[in-house]
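<tokenise_the_fold>
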Amino acid sequence: MSQFRIRSLILAGAAAMVLAACNGGRGSAAPETPFTSKAAKGAIFGAACTVTSFNGQVSYGTASSNAEGLISFTLVGELPEDEALLVTCAPAAGATYFNEATGTTLPLPAPISAVISSLAVAAGNGSIAVTPLTNLAALQLRAASNAAGGAIPNAAAASNANTVLAQAFGLSSITALPPTVNATSTGISDPYSLLLAAIAQAAATSGVDPFAFVSSLVGASPSTIDGIQAQLVTALDRIAQTYTVPAATLASVKTAVQNAPTTIVVPVTSGS
């Protein structure tokens, strides 16, 4: 065989190996999924936010919340097909939240979470609020998971946990991004934002932060829930004295709080 022929074969083989390596690199690149969130208890700024598996063993993305509380993630890796994912915003250096009751910006005292269906994120419906109410849904789902031996909630269970809480407080959704309330706000017309402000007011009256106030609801007795409902009704009236609140919105949120069930059940699995 001539030297020219041998050299041609060597070059052809090398080219094939390069092409194979390039194709393999493209095929093995981790998929990326855009995902938007908003941390709100008033606006939450500078929190260290993550999207993980429910048990926290797999991390898909990290980001920080901006001055409006908005968080823009780029999730990297294959998402589970049918599981609850956990969005957590934790205290970091300089992380703050706006307290509607006191009208001041305070250090973020504790992590706050939300659960979301992996199916919704993968389908491009990845947008969720992270608030004291989504944190309550996440805590309740965590308690149900622990009671079931650490079972990982499925995607429907994540959606159901949020729906149950929304219905309990007469809201259309607790995962929708609420309007920002901050130091420049003079009015609150959104029912969700109004309820979050009332939570801040009730917590301030009780001498605790809003996050601890909501966490205390998990596993609370019906009589304790009754007392908290009364606190929230009083808090709503106080907030309406501080901010301009439409009378119809105030009345509807007060009615929803008064009629909220004292026992809320969140299953680990829901549907098929």
In short: Strands lie at 32-39, 44-45, 48-53, 59-64, 70-76, 84-90, 96-99, 104-107, 112-117, 127-130.
